[in-house]
Model the fold of this input.
Amino acid sequence: MAHKDTIVESASSETVPGDTANTVVERRAPERGTQLRHEGVTFVPCTGGTGPTPKLALSGDARYGDQSEIGAGGMGRVFRVHDHNLNREVAMKVLRTDLANSALVRRFHVEAQIGGQLEHPGLLPVHDLGHDDEGNAFFTMRYVAEHETLSAIIARLLAGDEHTHAIYTLERRIHIIQRVGNALSYAHQRGVVHRDVKPDNILIGANGEVYLADWGVATLMQPQSQSEAGETIETSIEEQPLPDGALIGTLLYMSPEQLLGERFIGPRSDVYGLCAVAYEFLCLHHYLGETPPSTHVSILDAVIYGERVAAESYLHPQNLRVPRQLSRLLRWGLQTDREAAFATADELSAALQAWVEGKAPIVCPGTFIQRGLTHWGRAIDRRPVLVPTLSLGFAAVTIACVVFTLVQVASNAL
Done:
């Protein structure tokens, strides 16, 4: 027993062989009449056991076992493996052997280093980077148990699954988009652009986790376009510049500047992709139409010159219509004038939050009525007795005036 920062050993105590669990700061006998306190002292049990010392594997096949494939992408395959050192399940991404040239191995290492430095609740942390016994490059990251992609959820919503519609209300969908936006905002502040924001790369866990995954084509922003806030990411491997006109990402979710093959891509491009995802998540159709184009030329033509279909124009038996204010918001984010659209993920998130709070811009008489009802409902929350009383009184007076007017008109007619 001891004072706050002192471990006291009684004069009659005996030292147990191998007992090194506690560090003795000061040894003294307790003074007579002194009240002994326990605050600040952690007592660690030490049984003096003689069991073997655990042995750890450095990496590779000795550390990871029980592989089962859970996904595949353009650059690699993803396995669920057991980490013997930490006794837990992790996800392992392995570079495809048919792509294991020096350029793609460098790209794979850049992806792992970017993921290892991005620390955010909406991003999958990278744990380890190495090569297996056959020389294949791999890295491990958090395994999200019982997860599903946003594209799978959208497919069930479109099919009219009642249980999915009950879970993913309009408000919850907006919250998911905001959480992805928060992850993007953090990455942009660290100087990283994802370049492949799409439903397949958004994971939803069984406990409500939301992750933006697959940073395989992510790139570091140019210094002049990086945010001044926050520390930027650095990699020990220099990225190779892309040739002019190179396409990086997924065609149907690319921004206009990506489709045009511009070399330097900034945060606006990711925000455009997130708006495309939000459009599809809310109205269950792609923003380029029910049957979007499939070739680079046709998609480029539709994105640059085509008209955007208003999200509110789609009617689904369970999903109904997207509210007009949200439809206008999505159209604004997907416009071809890139300087006028949302510049950051925070701007998009703030606009969505304004709709949730009933503060979105009034665009028609219907949205004016919605704004009024929202404020009236919140006034009732703040004054649960006064506001309903005044409202009922006002309604009674209005009805009385209408009845009196009708009676007067009827009597005059006679």
Notes: Residues 386-413 form the longest helix (28 residues). DSSP finds eleven helices and ten strands in the chain.
